[in-house]
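Sequence only, no structure available. Ideas?
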Amino acid sequence: EEDLRLQPGQLPAWTAYQERVQRLLEDRRRTVREATTATTAPQRLDALADGARNRLTAVEDVVDAGKALYAVLTPEQRNVADRRLALPLAALTAQTPEISRAPR
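Reply:
I predicted one. C-alpha cells follow.
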C-alpha cells in the first residue's frame, strides 16, 4: 500500500483487494483447523475438499479485486503493482516464487 502511494480515490479499490486477500488467508487457516480437528480420515478429506472449493472462490475474488485495483492505478503505480500485486496470492496458493521475476 505504501509503495503504491495511493490517492484517496484509489483507496476503495485497495481496501477491497486487501479485504479479499485477508479472507483468503482466513479460509486457509480455517481449512487447516477443520482438517486437523476432524476425527476420521473421511472427515479430514471432506474438510480438505471443502477448503479447496472455498479457496478457489476466494482466489477468484482476489483476482477480480486485484484487476479492479490495477485499473485505477497510474502508469507509475502499475510498475510497482506489476512487481508486487500478485505476490500475496502466489504465497497463499503456494505458487512458486518465479512470479516475482516476471518481465518488468
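The CA atoms of residues 15 and 94 lie 23 Å apart.
Hope that gets you unstuck.
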